Each structure stands twice: as C-alpha cells, then as structure tokens.
UniProtKB/TrEMBL annotation:
Similarity field: In the central section; belongs to the CRISPR-associated helicase Cas3 family.
Domain Helicase ATP-binding: 243-430
Classification via SMART domains: DEXDc
Domain (HD Cas3-type) ranges: 9-186
InterPro entries: Cas3-like_dom, CRISPR-assoc_Cas3_HD, CRISPR-assoc_Cas3_HD_sf, DEAD/DEAH_box_helicase_dom, HD_domain, Helicase_ATP-bd, Helicase_Cas3_CRISPR-ass_core, P-loop_NTPase
One GO term of the biological process aspect: interstrand cross-link repair
Signal peptide coordinates: none
PANTHER family with a match to the protein in the record: ATP-DEPENDENT HELICASE HRQ1
Keyword terms of this UniProt record: Antiviral defense, ATP-binding, Helicase, Hydrolase, Metal-binding, Nuclease, Nucleotide-binding
Name recorded for this polypeptide: CRISPR-associated helicase, Cas3 family
CDD domains found in the cross-reference section: Cas3''_I, DEXHc_cas3
Lineage: Bacteria, Bacillati, Bacillota, Bacilli, Bacillales
Pfam families, alphabetized: Cas3-like_C_2, DEAD, HD
Length: 749
C-alpha cells in the first residue's frame, strides 16, 4: 500500500515518507542554528508518523473520518527504550523526550499544558491515550536515525538560567515547536503550491548589500542637511553607534534624547553589528502602530523595498503593491508567516506575545529570531506587569539564541535595579552630555494633587500663545478644553484623540503642520496619542501631570529643532475630570510628582528619570518581584524547576499585552470609507478591504458598545461593526460619546 501525507488540487499525492524526510531536514536545519539540530530532526521525522494508520489513509483518499495522527509520534518518543536508544539515560534525556512530545502532539492544535491524565487534551492525557490507530507500517518505510548528541546537550544545559531552569527548558520547547511547524508548512507549500515555493525562494539582499545602500542613503541625506547644532549632535550620535557596533553581542542601551535621530542611528548600529558578527537579520520592535508605518517607510527609503518586511495589523500589502514590484511584495507577504527577511519591522505586541504563545501561527516565526539584532524602540513602554518575563525572554535570546538586543529610549529605566546588565552605546557624547546639549526647553511645574489648575487657566495659557499644544490624560478633558477654545472664537483650534479614526487624525496633523510652517495661529488639544512618535514641533507645550516618561515625550514635541528661542513646557495638575481617580495614569502622575518633589533635580534630568522608574518598578520599596511579574509567569515557572511540567496554555493565557476590553467600530468618515464598507458586504475575499478599513476604526469601551447597540447605531457587516448614522461622527471631535463617563485614552499598540 502507498502511504500519502497530502493531496493537491491537481489530484497528485505527496508520499508520506517524502514529507517526513523533507520536514525532518528543514526542522533540523532550523534547529542547528541554536545547537539542537538532532532534536529538530526527531520532531520532524516523527510529527506525522501517525498518518501511517490505515484509517488516516482512508481520510487522505476522501473518506470523511476523524483521526488523531499527531499523538503517535509523541507516545513513541517518550517510551523508555526510545529515550535510551535515541537520547540517553539521564533525567535530562527524559525531559527532552517529553519536550519533543509537547512539540509533536501540538503541531496542529498548539502547545498544551502538561496537565494530568484526567484533563482532556493535555500532554499527559494524550500520552496515556489508548485508542490510537495502529501505525506500525511506518517502519517499512521510515528509519529514525541515531546520532551522538552528548556535546550539544552539555552545551545546552550550560546556557540555561540557573535560577529558572524550567524557564530555559520551556523556551527551548517553543523554539523547537517553531522549527517543526515552519518546516511542516514550508514542505507542504513546496508540494502543494510550487508557484509560491519558487516566489518565496527569491534571494533577499544580504546584510553587506544593505550596509552599502544605507551608507549611500546617509551620505546623500547628510549632504543636504543644514549645518545646525542639532544636526551636528545627530551626526555624533550616528558615529558613536557605528563605532560601538564592534562590541561583542550582549544587551545594549541606546540613550538618545527625543529628536536625536535614534531611529536611523540604531539602524546603523544594527547593520554594522550584524555584518561584524554574522547575524542573519535585524528585527525592529516598535510599541505603537501609530509610528510603525512611518519608521518602516524610512527603512524602505534607506534600504530598499525588497529588504523590509512590515508585520502588523494595519499594513495593507495590496495597497503597497501598487507602488512596487508585485512579485517582490508577494514574496514579502508570504514571509510575514515566518519572518524570513533581512529587516523585520513589527510591534511589541506581535514580538513579545509570540515569545510566550502556544499557537502554531504565532510561534512559527520564532526560530527566525535566532541570531538576530533586536532593536527595542521606546523600551520603557514594556507594560510594567510583564517587564520581568519580557526582560528574561530578551536575556534568553542573547545567552542561548545568539542575539544582540538594543534597548532604545530617551528615558531609560534602572535596568540594573531590574537585574539586567546593559552596555550603553553612547560613550561620547555620553547620555548626560546629550541631555545638556539637547536642552531645548524649560519645564515649569504648576499645581499638585492638593492644588489643581482649573480649565479656565489652561484656556488662558492657550489663548495667550499663538502656537501651542496641550496634552491631557482623558478623552473627556480634551473635548471639554476644545469646546471652550471654540467658544472663545479663537483661530486655528484643533482636537486629537482616539475618538478620531487614524485617517482623520492624519488629515488634522497635516493641517496643523501646515499652519505651524506658515506661522499661523495653531492651538491643538490632544490626548497622549500624539506622544507616540508624532513628528511635530510647537514653541509651547502644556502637559497634564503624568509619568515622567510621558512628560519627556511631550517635551519632545516642543522646540524639536533647537531654535534659538528656548521652548516652554508647562506641566499642570488638572481638574478631577482630567485626572483619573485610580489606575495607571493616576499612579504614574503621583510618582512623577513625588520624584520631582524629593529628587530636587530638573524633571527631565537622567537622575530624575531613573529615580522615577525605581519607584514605578518597585525597586525602591522592595515590590519589584511583585509588580514586574503581575501575572505570576516567572513564579509559575520557578515552581516547575523540579518536575519541568510546563503549562504552555496557561502561560499564553496569562501573557496578554493588551486587555481586550475595547471594541473596534468602523466609521464612514469619507467617501473612501463608505465605498470600502459597500465592498466588504459583497467581497468573497475581504482581507484586503479589512486592512484598508483599519484607517477608519475607532476603539470604544464595552459599556459604550452596549449603549450604541441599544440606540441601533451599529450594524454588522461581515463580522465588522459599522456606524450607521454619520451624524454621530463629528468632523472636528470624532465619534460622539455614548455616555458622559470619563474614559482614559490609551496609546494604540
């Protein structure tokens, strides 16, 4: 009897033996990069061994029968004689066999908890399963090769975290899982879709080629740059990054003030470092979708569109395809599945949630992170409750997976206090010298929690300034101030918040930039979303009390180019509707106030910033372990140090960067949005339309959703909620509030 793995549209069958050997070869190649090629081979050769059952062969030939084909290989690898013959006789060998069982049994449904025999679907339940169809015919075709593995095992254990060996063990399991599921997907695609196979193999430019392109781009850019003090400092930062790239792989910090050109300078470091240490790719991790597109476009201009893979929810390949070579974009689109590109630009959510995930689709890319340079932009923005597991993940990537990591920010936390050793890239000029050299603003603090600054005073400040930006903490406060400014009849008044869709915000920002350039009156009230990398320059900025990192970001929107006249930043304690009574904004504002009062240093001095983060991260009062691992992920794994019974499902469930308490609503902001909504209702393949509609989304809270639905203001179009009454979307302030409850504006990840 012939045994098959897959069938394709033309009726041809892929032989099962060919598939197992193909996957084993690829999986071994992927795993060799981090020193465990043999484990990758075993996972690959065994993953579909259960397809040798006669019942599965009936299924492949068209019969509608359900059959478990992924448990067989898992059960076989943990047998005592198998472990002895193929891995060894130590406890470590038994643990590695169990890890392979996790990987093999979960290659379709995901990595599960170790669990118990009684818990349906857990690893132990699967390993004790009795009703597995016979697959003994496999041994007529398949030979599982034995290979000496002791040297690799010893090296593996030497790299493991001494305090958290179970952490390193489960991380290895996820990496092996990535190798297997990507190899499985690639081999299946190679057989079932030869055209995509050929397209995906088109050669991407090497790091050396990208270096040449980058140098040419920067040479041209610097040639046309004005000879200003700020540009001279940016050149010094660039030179320091290129000089320090020769340092051996490790955890780096790049401390550069806002407006210092750290995006291109960090890329220069990464390219030089990757070239010197033979790194495979550069992964640029950005916290907010509101800035990822502008950074990715900057990289494309510097490196070429064939080098940059953009992977996040807002990216529309079909729209992008109109401007570049279609085959090249199709190749990049395929490569989003496994990050097989020289430069990857992605979000913090996509990057970190993948490192803690248990699903095939999220984990597939992980093995391509190995031997990379990872640049973490705005590193301080890692959510506090996940800071410890995220930093441990970055350390694991450095120690065990040959990565270098760069923590970029103008406001560096106390990494040493968090237990992380970093090397600062800026040797000359030093971070302290840069803060002095980039001093473009004076920060004045008004009020405190016992002395509020009324809205009337804020409106007076804005009336008295020809061009001024005011950043507040809540959507409601921004709308109230905007309405008061409009009532005064002032010229050039604008409003930005998450009540406006991205397309609308972009239109307003373009108008604002035009008025700033023309020296016309311009008064903008915004929530903190404008702090997320928006390139804009006001002579005066007002900021409601918030964390010092937020105040620093606000100051970065003031006198950005370092004009002769110093910029003015006023930090004020707002009325009750401008300061939530509890939660993250309230806590960070309180700690910022305490730091300013007790530190006796300027609010944006490096020492002030570090003291602030020591308070926020619980370093100064002994709460660090608790507040930086609020979901207990590290403590959960520490409890598994003796038995290595890894709860992969629980870890994935606990690690969620964004609480999913918001609902996306598409607003018919312009004729383009209205046309896309009509197309969505008729589309057979709506993915392209959905991506384009991302620009017209407003996030609302669950209680608002209930109110909007009660008033019949929403309709469901192919699973997407669409606003039905355009009068509820205002052309100046966006989607109207369904209730008068204060809503905290959150940065969009």
């Amino acid at each position: 009897m012939d045994f098959y793995a897959h069938t394709r549209e033309d009726g041809q069958y892929q032989k099962l033996k060919d598939h197992l050997e193909g996957v084993a070869t690829l999986s071994m190649r992927y795993a060799e990069v981090f020193g465990v090629g043999y484990l990758g081979y075993l996972a690959g050769i065994l993953h579909d061994i259960g397809k040798y059952s006669h019942i599965f062969q009936k299924r492949i030939r068209g019969e509608h029968v359900r059959v478990d084909h992924s448990t067989a290989g898992a059960q076989w690898i943990v047998k005592s004689e198998t472990v002895r013959d193929y891995l060894g006789t130590t406890h470590l060998d038994q643990y590695l066999a169990r890890l392979l069982a996790h990987v093999i049994s979960g290659h379709h449904g995901g990595l599960k908890n170790h669990g118990t025999v009684a818990e349906e679907g857990t690893l132990l339940n699967r390993l004790m399963k009795k009703d597995i169809p016979s697959w003994s015919s496999a041994w007529e075709e398949v030979e599982v090769v034995k290979q000496a593995f002791d040297t690799e095992k010893n090296a593996l254990v030497q790299r493991w975290n001494r305090e958290y060996p179970a952490w390193s063990y489960q991380f290895l399991g996820r990496m092996l899982y990535s190798c297997l599921v990507d190899a499985d997907s690639v081999d299946t695609r190679n057989y079932c879709n030869p055209v995509e196979n050929t397209m995906s193999k088109r050669q991407a430019p090497s790091i050396a080629v990208l270096q040449m392109r980058f140098r040419s781009f920067m040479s041209e850019k610097l040639k046309h740059a004005a000879d200003t003090r700020i540009n001279q400092l940016r050149q010094q930062i660039l030179s320091a990054c290129e000089r320090q790239a020769k340092l051996s792989p490790r955890m780096f910090a790049l401390t550069v003030p806002t407006g210092g050109g750290k995006t291109l300078s960090s890329l220069a470091f990464a390219l030089e470092h990757a070239h010197l240490y033979d790194k495979r790719r550069i992964i640029y991790v950005i916290p907010f979708t509101s800035i990822i597109e502008q950074n990715a476009q900057q990289f494309r201009e510097a490196l070429g569109p064939d080098a940059v893979l953009e992977h996040h929810s807002n990216f529309n390949y079909d729209e992008y395809q109109e401007n570049y070579d279609q085959d090249e974009i199709r190749r990049l689109k395929l490569n989003t599945e496994n990050w097989d590109a020289p430069v990857v630009v992605t979000t913090s959510v996509q990057f970190f949630e993948s490192l803690f995930a248990n699903k095939r689709s999220k984990c597939r890319k992980l093995h391509n992170i190995v031997n990379s340079v990872i640049i973490l932009d705005e590193a301080q923005s890692i959510p506090r409750g996940y800071m410890k597991p995220c930093l441990h993940a970055l350390e694991e990537l450095i120690v065990s997976y040959r990565c270098s990591v760069v923590l970029c920010t103008a406001t560096q936390p106390s990494w040493a206090g968090l237990g992380i050793q970093v090397t600062e890239i800026m040797d000359y000029p030093s971070p302290k010298e840069l803060v002095e050299a980039f001093k473009r603003v004076e920060v004045h603090v008004y009020g405190c929690n016992t002395e509020i600054i009324p809205d009337q005073q804020i409106v007076e400040w804005m009336k008295d300034s020809l061009q001024v930006l005011c950043i507040v903490n809540t959507r409601r406060h921004s709308k109230l101030l905007f309405d008061q400014l409009k009532e005064r009849g002032l010229e050039g008044v604008y409003h930005l918040s998450g009540r406006l869709c991205a397309k609308h915000r972009s239109t307003i920002l373009n108008e604002v930039r035009e008025r700033l350039y023309m020296k016309l009156p311009c008064r903008l009230v915004s929530t903190q979303l404008i702090e997320a990398g928006v390139d804009i320059d006001f002579p005066v900025v007002l900021r409601a009390y918030a964390g010092l990192d937020s105040i620093a970001q606000a100051a970065g929107r003031c006198n950005r180019e370092g004009h002769d006249k110093i910029g003015i930043v006023r930090v004020f304690f707002p009325e009750q509707h401008g300061m939530p009574s509890r939660g993250w904004i309230k806590e960070t504002a309180t700690e910022a106030q305490n730091t300013i009062e007790y530190c006796k240093q300027p609010p944006l001095a490096l020492s002030s910033i570090q003291k602030y983060f020591e308070r926020i991260h619980g370093i100064s009062d002994g709460r660090m372990e608790q507040v930086t691992d609020s979901e207990g992920i590290m403590s959960l794994l520490k409890s598994k140090n003796r038995n290595f019974e890894i709860p992969y499902q629980d870890i994935a469930d606990r690690f969620m960067f964004i609480e999913e308490n918001m609902q996306a609503v598409v607003v018919p902001y312009d004729p383009v949005a209205e046309h896309l909504i009509k197309l969505l209702a008729e589309a057979h393949y709506p993915l392209s339309i959905l991506r384009q509609l991302q620009a017209y989304v407003v996030q609302i809270y669950q209680h608002e959703l209930i109110e909007y639905q009660r008033q019949n203001l929403l309709k469901n179009v192919e699973g997407v909620l669409v606003l039905t009454d355009k009068s509820y979307y205002h052309q100046q302030s966006g989607l109207l509030q369904a209730t008068e409850l204060t809503e905290i504006e959150t940065l969009i990840f």
